[in-house]
Amino acid sequence: MASLFSRIIARELPAQIVAEDEQYIAFLDIMPLVKGHVLVVPKREVSYIFDLEPEELSGLHLFAQKVAKAMDNTLNCTRIGMAVIGLEVPHVHIHLVPLRTVDDINFTRPKLKLTEQDLADIADLIRKGF
After folding, report:
1. Angle at CA 107, nearest 5°, toward 70 and 44?
2. Number of domains in the chain
3. Catalytic residue among 37, 61, 91, 93
4. C-alpha triplet 91, 42, 30: angle, nearest 5°
5. Residue 61 catalytic?
6. Residue 71 reports pLDDT greater than 80
7. Which of 14, 20, 26, 77 has the most CB atoms lying inside 10 A of its own CB?
């Protein structure tokens, strides 16, 4: 069965996509730690990040760098933090989290519940950073 992220990639499920190319996609997390929390995902469904081919792994990080720079250009934050947890969804993904404090990337804290309009506005803002 296709992962949740594969269903987003196939456009079977909605998402606020901020960037995409032939191999990778970036979209807003619908249960973000902070506003602007983005997931960067390879389009090829692989469960564990270290099972990616070397060129896919490096490509994923280079794509994430472009997205992080766009986020940095448009979001009011000190830095963009990066995390790979890999337990929630069996499809490789990198979390890019706008940071003001180290607690902003604490995955044990309660997640935000944003409206569809909030998510759309944040996605529009990030897209302007490219």
Report:
1. 60
2. 1
3. 93
4. 65
5. no
6. yes
7. 26
